[in-house]
From TrEMBL:
Gene3D superfamilies, A to Z: Acyl-CoA dehydrogenase/oxidase, N-terminal domain, Butyryl-CoA Dehydrogenase, subunit A, domain 2, Butyryl-CoA Dehydrogenase, subunit A, domain 3
GO terms assigned for molecular function: flavin adenine dinucleotide binding; oxidoreductase activity, acting on the CH-CH group of donors
Residue intervals of the Acyl-CoA dehydrogenase/oxidase N-terminal domain: 37-141
This protein's name: Acyl-CoA dehydrogenase/oxidase N-terminal domain-containing protein
Pfam families: Acyl-CoA_dh_N
Amino acid sequence: MRQTIEFLLRDWLDVEALNARPRYAEHSLATFTPVLDTCERIARDKYAPFNRLVDLEEPRQDGDRVILPQAAHDAWRAYAESGMLAAAQDEALGGMQLPYTVEAAANAFFARASVSIGAGMLTVGNANLLMAHGTPAQQRVFAQTEFSGRWAGTMCLSEPQAGTSLSDIATRALPDGDDFEADALGPRYRLFGNKMWISAGEHELTENIVHLVLAKIPGADGKLIPGPRGISLFIAPKMMVDADGRLTRKRRVAPSFLDPLVGRVGEPALGAVEYLRNDITLAGLNHRCGWRGTPNTLLSFGDGRHPVRGMAGAIGWRVGAPGDGLRCMFHMMNEARIGVGLAAAMLARSPGARRRHGGQRAGSRAAPRSRRRHHPGAAHTALSATPAANGTSLLHPALAPRAGEWLGLHQPTRHSRRLRTWAERCAATPRSHGRTRPGNFPGEHTWLTIICNSSLPNGPAAGWKSITSGSNVAPCPSRARAKCWCATTGCRSTPICAGACPTPSPTPNRWHWAR
C-alpha cells in the first residue's frame, strides 16, 4: 500500500507542484516522506494488531462512563503525539502546514489498519469548523485544544425521531439569563433534548469532549421555527470550561491515603480535584455492525442530572448567527463524507480478505484449505472489486481539497453521490455474492462495515447480472422491466430492455441487467 500511495502522490497527483505555493514553500518530498513513515509505523504498531480486539471487546457502559480497551487509549495517545490532528494547520498553531492532499494520504494508513480505533476524523473536522465559523475565543479555547489532542470532538445532529431529516429536530436552545450575549465564549444558551447515534459521544480518551450540537431557538411565540431555517449551532463541552480554556473546578476534597493517583510535589492528588460537568448525560450505547471500536451513543442534554449553577440545561455557546447552524455544520459534514469515503476505500484494501481461506478441493477432506482467490468465482469477484478500490484510493486525495466546490450546501445529497460512487460500487460486489454471518472469520467485520453502512436502493445492491454474447446482440434474460447498459458502447436502455442493443457494435458486447 505504501508503494501505491507514493505513486499517487508523486506520479499522478504531482504533489511537488504544491510547493510552488507560498504556504507550502518549505515542503518537499523530503518532508512528506517522514510524515508517511510515522503514520505507517503508528498504524502498524498501535492500530493493526488490535483491530480484531476492539471488534470483540465492544465499548460498554458503566453509569456515565464508557469503558474502552487499553489499546484504544494507546492508539489515541500515539496519534495525538504524532501531530496529525493539526497537520494541515499553521505553524503558529502547532501545525505543519501540510497540504491536505498529503494529510489525507497519511491518514489512509490508520483507516486501513483499524478504522474504528480513535476519533481523529471527528476531532479534526470539529476543530476545522470552529476555525472557519467560530469567534477568536472559541478558536483559542476549543479548536486549538482539540488540535493538541487534549480534547476530542463530535457532531450531534440526529435525534431519535429525526435521522437524516434535520428539519425535524426538536432540541431547544433557550437564552441563559439576561446577560447571555455578554459571555466571553459567545452567546450562552441552555440546551434541552436528545441526540442519537453520536459517534465517540462519551469516552475517557481525553479530559474533555467538545460537542457541536444542532438545536432550534424558539421564536417570539415560544414555538420552534419549522424547517431548517430555525436551526442554530452550539458548542456544548462535556466538562465546563472558563474563558481561558481551563476546566471549571467543582470542589476540592481531601486526598485519600488509598488513592493511587498522586500528583506532583506541592500539588494535590489527581483524584482530589473534581471538575464541573455540563448537563449532558449518557443515556445509552447503540450496538453497531461495523466500526465497533467507536462508541455510538445516545446523549441527553438538559435532563437535570448534572445541573450547572443549580439549574437544569446543558450550557452551549452559539457558533455563527441564529438560524445559520446547518450551513456551518456542513463544513464538518463535508469533511466527514470524504473521511467515510477514505474508510470505505481502505476497508476494501484490507488484508483480511486476502488471508481468508475458502474451502477444500472436492473429493478429499484431508486436502489443505485453499485461499479464496484460488476459486474462480471468488477470484472474479475480487478482481471486479480491485479497480473500484484502487479508484477510490486515487480519488480521495485528489478530490479532498475540492470538497467545498463539489459538496455545495444547496444540494448536498446529490453532489455527495459523486464522491460515494466508487465506494458504493465496491461495497456492492461482496454483498451480491455469498453470505455474511456474525463471527464468520476475522475479517467479517470489515465487510459488514461496508455492507451495513451503505444505502443503495436502486444501484448495484439490487443485484447486478452480466452476460457476454458472441455477437453484437445480447438477449435480455428477463425480458421484463429492467435497467440495462452496455459496457462496450455505453448505451443505456431503460426502463424496458428490448432484448437487443439499440446501437449494435461490431465487437461482442457485455450487457448488465439490474433486476
